Every structure is written in structure tokens, then in C-alpha cells.
Amino acid sequence: xxxxxxxxxxxxxxxxxxxxxxxxxxxxxxxxxxxxxxxxxxxxxxxxxxxxxxxxxxxxxxxxxxxxxxxxxxxxxxxxxxxxxxxxxxxxxxxxxxxxxxxxxxxxxxxxxxxxxxxxxxxxxxxxxxxxxxxxxxxxxxxxxxxxxxxxxxxxxxxxxxxxxxxxxxxxxxxxxxxxxxxxxxxxxxxxxxxxxxxxxxxxxxxxxxxxxxxxxxxxxxxxxxxxxxxxx
Length: 233
What we know:
Elements: E1 6-12, H1 19-22, H2 25-32, E2 36-42, E3 55-56, E4 66-67, H3 69-79, E5 86-97, H4 100-106, E6 111-115, E7 121-122, H5 124-130, E8 133-136, H6 146-157, H7 166-176, E9 191-195, E10 202-206, H8 216-230
Parallel strand pairs: 1-2, 1-6, 4-7, 5-6, 5-8
Antiparallel strand pairs: 3-4, 9-10
């Protein structure tokens, strides 16, 4: 049975800053495998003046420029796929804080469309009328919505079947479904001599002995304890 393709569209005035990340590593391979299709769209394409203006001065006065509703509306109408389960997301510092459960929820959609602001902001009608929801990746302000869009896409795509592989997907499902953080992991060498950057002293960094014991039952117990500790349960 062929894998259902998911579509992720980002509307921005700086699409060239988005594309390199989407083409690299796991996201790039997911697109090569035709599990996903990424497209970064230049908002200026949907303007109708010779200067391709996407912003204007704010009503009521104030500093900076505000991005207009019309180009976003025209862009959404052009790229929204009919017959697909769509979700339009406005990235905003004032939006709902993004969590793992949101990534799982959004992975069920056929198409996600991200509206990325810049400058002083976006006409409030874009968020209120055009978007299905507003999402924030943290209580801070960025220069634009491109980074939040990439963060959300990265988190969502890795949950799609076939992206990480069967074993990795089960790992993600078991540890993140209830908001739990993964246990710490180690690899060779078991002992590492390290010179502290602060004290300049030589320290010995060892892998926890229990992981070298070969006792899978106690290792599993240790890992579960670490999950609870990291997740502050």
C-alpha cells in the first residue's frame, strides 16, 4: 500500500532562507521518498503592484510597517489543495505554546500551510480570519515566523510513517505520547579523559556501569527511572 503524501507550504517574504533546511538530513530524505512535499512560497508573488508591496503603514499611527491581509488571502487560495485535509497555521509569539501532542495532532493533516510574518507584524485579520490556529514555540519574539514554522514541520514530519523507520517511530511514540522525555544515551568509549574548560583539570567521564552490565531487565528499570527524573514525574 503506497504511503500517503503530506504537503507542507510556507508563505514568507524570505523563502530562500527556508529551503536549505528542508532539503537536508531526515527532512530531505522524507521528500526524496515522496512521503512529504515541501514548498516555500514568496508572498510577493501574490501582490498586484509593480513594487510587489506586502506591507503598509499601520492605521492609528505607530512605528514600522504592517503586512497586509490581501496577499496572504490570495496566496492561501492559490496553494490550498482541494479535497485534502488542510490546516492553516499562523506563527506568533502570542499563540498557543507548541507541544509534542500538537505535533502528533498536526501529523494527521494532508496539508499544513504556514503564514510567516515579518516587520512590525501582520494585519490582525490574517490571524483572526484566515488562520485555523496560532502557534508559538516559546515566550519570546523573533524577527519572523520562518524559524517557528521550521521547528513545527521538523517535529511533525518525524512522526509520519516511514520517515524514521519502524523501530525509531515506536521509540518516539512510547516516550513522547504522554509528554515524557527520553532517557540519556551513551556510546563508545566507556571511559573518556576530558580536560575541563573551566578548571583545566583532567576528569574521567564514565558511562553508567549498569549500561555495561548486560542485564537488560535492570537496564530497562534504570532507563524508566531516568525518564521519570528528566520528566520531573
